[in-house]
Amino acid sequence: MDEFLSKCLDLAMSVGGKIILAIIVLVIGSLIIKGIKKAMTKADKFSKLDKTVQSFVKSFVSVGLYVLLVVSVISILGIPMTSVVAVLASCGLAIGLALQGALSNFAGGLMILIFKPFRVGDYIDATGAEGTVRDIGIFYTTIITIDNKRITVPNGDLMNSNVTNFSSEELRRVDLNFKITNDCDQDVAREVLLKAVSETAGIITDPAPFSRLSAVDDDTYIFTIRAWCESGKYWDVYFDLLENCSKALAANGIDDPEERLAVRLVKPED
Q1: Are 101 and 157 in contact (CB under 8 A)?
Q2: Which side of the chain, N or C, has fewer Cβ within a 10 Å radius?
Q3: How would you label 33-66 residue by residue, b for 16+ Cβ within 10 Å and e otherwise?
């Protein structure tokens, strides 16, 4: 009995020592990895890289270092690597199927890095998600919506779908339609709208603004306004242009057919 207890004690001390050492290595290794990531971020050469490349490289290095750390911990615990490899090989089909999506996302991340359909900071619309790209990782891309929601999109899905990048070009065009009654002089309406466009801040003159009659429907004229602005000022110009054109039409007595109909409906009988 004493011999059995002695063997159990020796085994516990041996295994316990390995477990403690493995925990120490895991903690210290995690701290070292965090330090390496911080040092990378502060490095001058790294900071000069494109933000998209920075994000991808940080994710790749982080995953690689953590894999090395896990392998080191397994070795300290005394688990033969040959046994680990044998187990992984025997489960290769299941692991391959399980990692199929992950490998697709990884390949998608590489394609994004190489072909650059969008970058960190761009405003995009893809796979039902629309917003500003905050981070491009090795597996997922993080998008922040206008109302500050976080959307995580697999890179594989991004590379297999249409991506609309609203920030890639220097200029964007603002398109607006206005309904007016057909008893209004078309030339007057066009000039009123063009003047409102020219007085809107942020509108550029080359390409020149456009104001023309684009459709006729019963008692309605539909005028289309097209004006160009810098991509970063699009929404400010959009709302300012909508407000200025609406005010200009009202100031010149040019009615919206729906508003005129509403007035007729509520007008009391004599």
Answers
A1: no
A2: C
A3: beeeeeebeeeeeeeeeeebebbbebbbebeebe
DSSP element (H, E) containing 221: strand 220-230
**Distance from C-alpha of 142 to C-alpha of 150, rounded to nearest angstrom:** 7
Cα 247 to chain centroid, rounded: 36
Find tokens 């490289």 and name the residue. Answer: 57
- How far is CA 198 from each of CA 58, 177, 206, rounded to the nearest angstrom? 47, 17, 12
**CA-closest candidate to residue 155, choices 144, 139, 142:** 139
Per-residue pLDDT of the chain (270 residues), as tens digits, is: 556 556 555 655 566 677 788 888 888 888 888 888 888 777 777 776 767 677 777 777 887 888 888 878 877 777 776 766 666 566 655 656 655 677 788 888 888 888 889 999 999 999 999 999 999 888 899 999 999 999 999 999 998 899 999 999 999 999 999 999 888 889 999 999 999 999 999 999 999 999 999 999 877 899 999 999 999 999 999 999 999 999 999 999 887 666 554 444 445 554
Take residue 2 and report the two structure tokens written for it.
């004493």
HSE (side-chain half, CA atoms, 13 Å) at 45: 1
For 214, what's the count of Cα atoms within 13 Å in the CB-facing half-sphere? 13
- The residue written with tokens 């054109």 in the block is 245
Q: What is the largest CA-CA distance in the chain?
A: 116
Tokens for 20? Answer: 């403690």
Nearest-CA neighbor of 245 among 198, 183, 181? 198
Q: Which two tokens stand for residue 186?
A: 């078309």
